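INTERNAL AUDIT FORM
Audit reference: QA-55
Scope: verify that the stored structure record matches its stored sequence.
Auditor: D.O.
Record contents follow.
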Amino acid sequence: MAFKINAVYAGDDQVELTHDLSGTKLLTDLPPDNGGKGRTFSPTDLAAASVASCVLTIMARLAQREGIKFEGAAIEIEKHMQESPRRISALTGVVKLPAGITPLQREKLMACVKACPVSRSLHPDIKLELTAE
């Protein structure tokens, strides 16, 4: 299935992205560590945000099927960059699961990290390490 996102350079190191289906817009900005102002998400920040959002979404679907209370679950993700070549080298972080999750439920939920289509789309050189809390 194909899908369009329209990107237009808005000037001053910013790009406006438009979601074709809904018309929702967002801006990206050049990050400070690459000479920008960091006023909003950078393109590589969106990659990290995509992983976190995808993992939580897949976990929520599993929780719904299994009758697991999932409200309040969160991910704190950290993007690590390398310089030569400039790229994301690692995404690390913590999945904060709701209280009362059993060990089996925790195991099933954490398996969603590898089941997420965004995680599966990452280059194998990018280290992805999310731990449960």
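Auditor finding: record pair retrieved intact. The chain has three helices and six strands.
Action required: none
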